[in-house]
């Protein structure tokens, strides 16, 4: 700050080395001086201000300029001695004088005190008395950097869009017309961007899909995002399946645009159709099978699905059976063995068992079950095929009882009773009287020819 209160231009000292600042001490102002008037007006302004004389020397600055450049007031005095800075100010004055009457706006790149590159926008005007040039400065460094980053970002996205395999489009939400088409359209659909820009996006869509996709688009515009699958015509007249994912964005003019990223899902659709057909065939087989088929969750051991045959065998509906604790329905005498087989099956992936299971009416039946462990979405499941073997078990029990009764009768007889094979003539059975009478053991006689004893 100058130490003199007289008019700076009339000071006996070298006024080119002095810089004047407006302060709260009004005794240091020079009444009537246009420079002091300007400084008073800009006392608390955030607008950075610089006044120079016709020799390009700093005559006044405000605190906002100090903040912008990072220099203190004392440090700014020394800048008057820098020839490079004087050359810049001289060029600004010359540019102003050579321009049309009025204010001249321009940009300047300069280094701040810490070496950081600053981009300053400035406006030059001349004082009414012609003694000073007033330079009003705005720091637009952040805006400039943002602009550079925006241009770099746009360039990256342009490169991505032009080299992407997916289709990238911008659509006017009001007219549904294309504003931008990526080059990948020509590779996938056969249309060049020039052939599609300005046309309605529904023009090449399959007629059966237009109403449905239009409704999805309107819902997506309200939500800000959406997804749709549809058939689109290629230039050669054939159709392909596409899936589009859309999102509302705003362009540099603040206008809404619909950004779509679309990919060819024809192969996926073929696979889905093949899977659907396969599932329908297998469901028909499962639903028509005489054996009971069920899918059991390994963690909860509850059924996730049973076929109609198992519903008929057990008396449960599919809905009822899903809430049944299967272990509780197994006969108490069979539970330990089933638990052991389940543990073994988790390791081997397969197992089979015969056990008694309680039906809905409370009666037990015998089931012969083969189980295989499968994985769906990372979850382990048992696929079990069961057959009601109650009749077979009953027949086996009756046969066992009959054989025991026959053996009891024959072993009690004093007569020799034996059974031999008609073809081989070998003993299949001998009662206890044979060894006693003949002197041979039962093991020695079984398998021998009956004529060996003649």
UniProtKB/TrEMBL annotation:
SMART domains: PAC, PAS. Gene3D superfamilies: PAS domain. Its EC number is 2.7.13.3. It comes from the Bacteria. Coiled coil: none annotated. The keyword Kinase applies. GO terms for molecular function: protein histidine kinase activity. Residues 226-277, 351-401 form the PAC domain. Keywords: Kinase, Phosphoprotein, Transferase. It is an enzyme of class 2 (transferase). Residues 153-224, 278-349, 402-454 form the PAS domain. The keyword Methyltransferase does not apply. It catalyses: ATP + protein L-histidine = ADP + protein N-phospho-L-histidine. PANTHER family: PAC DOMAIN-CONTAINING PROTEIN, PHYTOCHROME-LIKE PROTEIN CPH1. This is histidine kinase.
């Amino acid at each position: 700050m100058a130490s003199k209160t007289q008019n700076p231009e009339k000071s006996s000292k070298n006024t080119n080395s002095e810089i004047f600042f407006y302060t709260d001490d009004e005794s240091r102002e020079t009444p009537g001086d246009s420079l002091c008037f300007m400084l008073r007006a800009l006392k608390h302004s955030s607008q950075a201000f610089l006044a120079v004389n016709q020799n390009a020397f700093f005559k006044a600055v405000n605190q906002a300029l100090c903040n912008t450049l990072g220099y203190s007031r004392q440090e700014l005095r020394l800048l008057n001695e820098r020839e490079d800075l004087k050359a810049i100010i001289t060029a600004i004055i010359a540019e102003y004088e050579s321009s049309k009457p009025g204010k001249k706006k321009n940009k300047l790149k300069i280094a701040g005190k810490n070496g950081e590159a600053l981009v300053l926008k400035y406006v030059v005007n001349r004082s009414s008395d012609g003694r000073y040039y007033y330079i009003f400065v705005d720091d637009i460094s952040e805006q400039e950097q943002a602009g550079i980053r925006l241009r770099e970002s746009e360039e990256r996205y342009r490169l991505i869009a032009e080299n992407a395999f997916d289709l990238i489009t911008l659509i006017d939400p009001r007219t549904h017309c294309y504003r931008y088409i990526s080059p990948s359209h020509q590779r996938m659909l056969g249309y060049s961007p020039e052939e599609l820009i300005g046309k309605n996006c529904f023009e090449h869509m399959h007629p059966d899909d237009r109403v449905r996709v239009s409704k999805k688009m309107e819902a997506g515009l309200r939500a800000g995002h959406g997804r749709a699958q549809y058939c689109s015509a290629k230039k050669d007249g054939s159709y392909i399946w596409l899936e589009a994912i859309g999102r509302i964005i705003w362009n540099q003019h603040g206008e809404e645009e619909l950004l779509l990223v679309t990919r060819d899902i024809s192969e996926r659709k073929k696979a889905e159709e093949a899977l659907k057909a396969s599932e329908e065939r297998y469901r028909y087989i499962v639903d028509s099978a005489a054996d009971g088929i069920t899918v059991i969750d390994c963690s909860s051991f509850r059924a996730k699905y049973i076929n109609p045959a198992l519903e008929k065998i057990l008396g449960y509906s599919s809905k009822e059976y899903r809430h049944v604790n299967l272990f509780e329905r197994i006969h108490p005498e069979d539970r330990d063995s089933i638990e052991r087989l389940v543990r073994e099956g988790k390791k081997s992936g397969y197992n089979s068992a015969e056990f008694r299971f309680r039906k809905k009416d409370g009666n037990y039946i015998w089931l012969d079950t083969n189980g295989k462990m499968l994985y769906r979405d990372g979850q382990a499941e048992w696929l079990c095929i069961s057959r009601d073997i109650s009749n077979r078990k009953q027949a086996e029990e009756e046969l066992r009882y009959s054989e025991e009764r026959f053996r009891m009768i024959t072993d009690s007889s004093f007569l020799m009773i034996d059974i031999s094979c008609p073809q081989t003539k070998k003993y299949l059975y001998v009662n206890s009287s044979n060894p006693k009478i003949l002197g041979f053991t039962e093991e020695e006689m079984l398998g021998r020819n009956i004529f060996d004893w003649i």
